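Batch manifest line 624
LIGAND: dinuclear copper ion
JOB: complex structure
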Amino acid sequence: MKRKGIISAVSGLAAGVLVAAVFFADFNKEEKASSAADNKSKAEKVYVPYGEYDDYYMLASGGHSGQLFVYGVPSMRKIRTVPVFTPDPATGYGYDENTKKMLGGYTWGDFHHPAVSETKGDYDGEFLFANDVGNNRVAAVDLSTFHTADIMSLPNMGGPHAGVFVTENTEYIALPTRFARPLGGKYAELDKYKEEYKGVVSMAKFDRDKKKFNLAYQIMLPPWSYDLSDAGKKMSGDWIVMTTYNTEFATTNLEINASQNDRDYIVLINWKKLEGEVAKGNYKEIEGVKMVDPRDYKGAIYAIPVSKSPHGVDVTPDGKRFIAAGKLAPLMTVFSFEKAFEAIEKEDYSDEKFGIPVLPYKKVMEREVDPPGALGPLHTQFDDKGNAYNTMFISSEVVKWKVDTGEVIDRKPSYFSPGHSSAAEGDTVDPDGKWLVALNKIAKDNFLSVGPSHPESMDLFDISGEEMEHIMAAPVDPEPHYAQIVHKDKIKPKKLYEKDEKRKNAVWSKEDAHIERKGNEVHVYGVALRSKFVFDAKSDRPDAVTVNQGDRVFFHMTNIDLDQDITHGFGINDYNLNFEVQPGQTNTLEFVADQAGTFPIYCTNFCSALHQEMSGYLLVKPKE
Ligand code: CUK
Ligand code: CUA
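JOB STATUS: finished
ARTIFACT:
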């Protein structure tokens, strides 16, 4: 099979105009094809026999699908899609009362970066947080049920692209904005950009018991674009680092105008300090949020020059350094927190921008790593042996190098154009050094063709040896921006929703199913069990409900099959409604019966040999 690789070269012209040239390189067939023996050994590495499990969960962002994808590693089998920012008829997400309220009418989201809750800088496996770049939201997924537990809207933001990341003990979930916007999203002419537009960072807190977010405070920053960010670890645990682009304040044609400066900035913020100021009441209430300007407090914010238009910034597992990847400058820059703190201590500033002290690049930078021909570094992951792994979007490869020395150890192609990669526990204080998945933006001819647009692609590498070994490619729906690979022992999913006699709206036996009418509201307290619905135990047709046209109907359904994986669905024919109840769960479907007629109700989730019989009727009496 002849393979084609895409190589896009980005070159700067004299006028600063950037032209992206795309050309194709033919991979040599012999080079590419591995031997049958090789294939066998690769296959054995990832084969998970029936009855055994993968070692890792890969929790991957679903990009503009708004969903979370759950994969097993190393098999790369997709296990589940968890709807987060987008309604999902397969699970009734966004149809039942609770999830509908949570989605607040939004029908899409742009899920960029997952962040698993951490304790001491390591995944604790309890919750996963996600940012919605499309509609300014943050979500929490409860990893005991893989259900979205809460969603919070973030005012004053223009797409929280640079989040989410959590501080060492999940004190905060931080979400820096991508686009600067006037506060409150108000109207302000683009000519007033520098004065009126702000780049805001949201600092959210999550209460694990109540499973609820609250917005602790926001940080008001200059109208730069914040691209990616990370939380410090250990010695740097009080800090967050963020890359910026568009320090040119361009308001149009960003491709060119935001790529003028040779240097943009890394911004360092001390969240601990700001937390203290907020506690003392040193903030302004703006748009209902506690807003702090870090420039008002000494020691809260610094900038460090970095080569132009950086993308990712990642803190090393020991917390001593951070690495910026230069989207347009083909190098990784290693910075030292120690050196930054020293310069701060001595007030050794080279400049000031927007009232922010700028630390001297030469004094904070440790080294620039510039593998020849490696172009478009985007993000960095780590292993347990002091190595970093960088994805190269333009030259389509993964580069392994030593953090201490900058020595390049290995380079392997990826197919094609990787954005992020994810290594097993590779962004924690304790990476495992086992697997790395490159999350590619382009699949080209990797899989059976499905037309002009293809899935994205993921490459699995074994990184346990000195050299990386490419094992396999797997398709993935758009768009895998980032993933975290979490050891299976850290996630403790429930088998059931526990029976709770006091749960609101729950009915736990067939005999207790009943219907209550209050004015034009009809509340059905029903149960679902193999293989029937019971809405009204006293009726001689317990699985039929009659209402009047225009009534507001509530189906409060409890699944009383306390048996793992026996989920019942609930679809109403012609009413465009479907939801589900998982074992032991109670859910409510609320709607106005505006259509008169006779509507079959049926279980949409195959649950037993008599699943087809699991049905009933909704009868809506016409008004007149
Ligand atoms: S970003 Cu997607 S490749 Cu929007 Cu995390 Cu870097
Ligand atoms: Cu219950 Cu099918």
